[in-house]
Amino acid sequence: MTMNDSDVRDVLHRATEDLVSPPGLLGEVRRGGRRRVVRRRAVLATLCAAVVALPVAGGLQLASDGGEVQVASPLLDEPTRGDLARNEGYLRQVRDVWQRRRAELETPMSGEPHIVWAGQTPAGPAAYIAHRTTHNPIVSEPANDRLVAMAAFVEPTANGPSVMTTETITDAGTDGNSQAVLLGPQRDVLLVLDFGQPVEFSPELQYMPDGKVKRTFQPVAFRDGAAILAVQPQRTKITVGLARTPVKRENVVHITNATEILSPNGDSPSRKRLRYTLPGADPAWGGDPTTPEYQNKPGAKEVSAQGTEALADYIDPLGAHVGDGSPLLSIYGATPDGRRLLVETIQYDDEPARVIALTARNDESFQAVANTVADWTAPLQVRLQLPDNQGTLVAAEGATLSYRVADGEWVDAGRNAALLPANATDVRVTNASGTVTNVAVAS
Q1: CA quadruple 275, 277, 282, 284: dihedral, nearest 10
Q2: Which residue, among 282, 318, 277, has the nearest Cα to 300 in the 3D structure?
Q3: N or C end of the chain, less CB within 10 A?
Q4: Pairwise CA distance, residues 245 & 430, whole Å
Q5: What is the rounded distance in angstroms from the CA atom of residue 309 to the CA atom of residue 211?
Q6: What span, in angstroms and rounded, lies between the C-alpha atoms of 428 and 435?
């Protein structure tokens, strides 16, 4: 079966429900990612995955028979940089720990490893090392590239230098390989390698009053092959961001240990997927978007705005994040004036879940029209007023909902989620155990 854009985007949205995909993700998936890790493969995006490139003109050229690299490359052949470049005692330690790691790898390597950078940091001495492979087999990802080297950061620990996640390098260059690492017990030292292109640094992720994300940037000042930045502790979540210029998702600079910080046990919290279709949605959507029949139907309308420009302002373009285990909510409905109504959830780390309402006329693209913060501990978990007197969206998992206007009779509104009329003043929530809570719509 051939998958269309709607199929792919919905599969991604459901398969990565604990993550938030950035704008343009679909195109990146179709082109194929460039992230290559030998051990502990990075979570999506780490965790919002992106692309990094080292300016090696034409990649790393190989002999026609797939033999070893025949030309010099900046990564493998330039002199070691950093203030420990001539410290033979430290360089010997780095080579020794690399040789022990090399023995664990299945890939044969030739010659001596090359220490690209070695220097002092506030967390202790650190390095970046690369080693040519004996053979250059074709790798499965990226397709038709050839393996040319293995590389890794070396971090300081109480027991001496330690090799971090090992990555492969192909003849396409270091496109997708890590350029930065967080060091120290508090992960408050950010080491960024100089790959020959300007890099911008964002110290934290902020939110505007309307829920949109905000980042400020400053140029990274490289010296002798690297930059060392003091950052707030990044032990449990990553608030910093790095990108080559111009700053955009495609230019994100990878932090090699982002996955280990965000998912120290190798997994992320499981998240409940809540998907509801409101009464009267079928005419606007052409069916029930929550059903497989709809999603497999040719020409079916998009069932998610994740990864589109409609949500771009609410998504962190650079950061690496993981959810806190709270639900991910999607609601499909229709507004009184006939527009498709879509509700999506965005939630980063331990931040509140942002619930965003989007509308679209006919086959036009969705536009974000309202947003609020979900309270998953409250009887009424979501309450969101739509503009243009289109009503108030409410949601409470597993609850029966009803509403009234002023002191009028209570009117049944169904279960789990409802779009109340614009003049509704109160909503009654009856949970699964029978507890009744009345909530003022405007409160």
Answers
A1: -80
A2: 282
A3: N
A4: 53
A5: 16
A6: 10
